[in-house]
């Protein structure tokens, strides 16, 4: 698996399809996985924030989200295969979870947005096992919330707090669990909610 480094961020040079097949295998092998979909905003933020930069280096996979990342790679003469938008990668994971009856936890967004998101998920992907859901407006340092999600025993945890909050929370969460894929999905629930 080759990497392309842009401003110190090691992107995985995989297509969306390749990401999904690797992630599926990790799920089957019960290997816990920290996935980041890094767009140019995230890359620029990491450049000026050392703690966040270090946090990104702890990710198992970093997807090249955004045409700016693809262009930068090309300019550096280390082209990447394709742009992998975070939203589409998330849809791919939901598709996979639907086909395989996997457990998905949804955490983040405002309560009404989240409720609509869950309704739409049930309609669109009826075979997903909804492991649980919780809005994103709580003290993100609260260990009880981590326990709550941990007890739901999810295969996939979608964290929609926006960056850098979502990645900070994912790191703490993954320290406490044995398996599962966790990914920050930014404002995606606002989109799924319609
Ligand atoms: N959000 C949240 N908790 C917070 C702050 C934000 O759940 O403490 C949610 C917000 O409701 C939205 C998502 O995080 O659904 C993304 O927020 P924002 O647009 O601020 O971040 P960005 O998309 O720019 O990363």
TrEMBL record:
Its EC number is 2.4.1.187. It catalyses: UDP-N-acetyl-alpha-D-mannosamine + N-acetyl-alpha-D-glucosaminyl-di-trans,octa-cis-undecaprenyl diphosphate = N-acetyl-beta-D-mannosaminyl-(1->4)-N-acetyl-alpha-D-glucosaminyl di-trans,octa-cis-undecaprenyl diphosphate + UDP + H(+). Keywords: Cell wall biogenesis/degradation, Glycosyltransferase, Teichoic acid biosynthesis, Transferase. Pathway: Cell wall biogenesis; teichoic acid biosynthesis. Signal peptide: none annotated. Catalyzes the conversion of GlcNAc-PP-undecaprenol into ManNAc-GlcNAc-PP-undecaprenol, the first committed lipid intermediate in the de novo synthesis of teichoic acid. Belongs to the glycosyltransferase 26 family. TagA/TarA subfamily. This is N-acetylglucosaminyldiphosphoundecaprenol N-acetyl-beta-D-mannosaminyltransferase. It comes from Alkalibacterium iburiense.
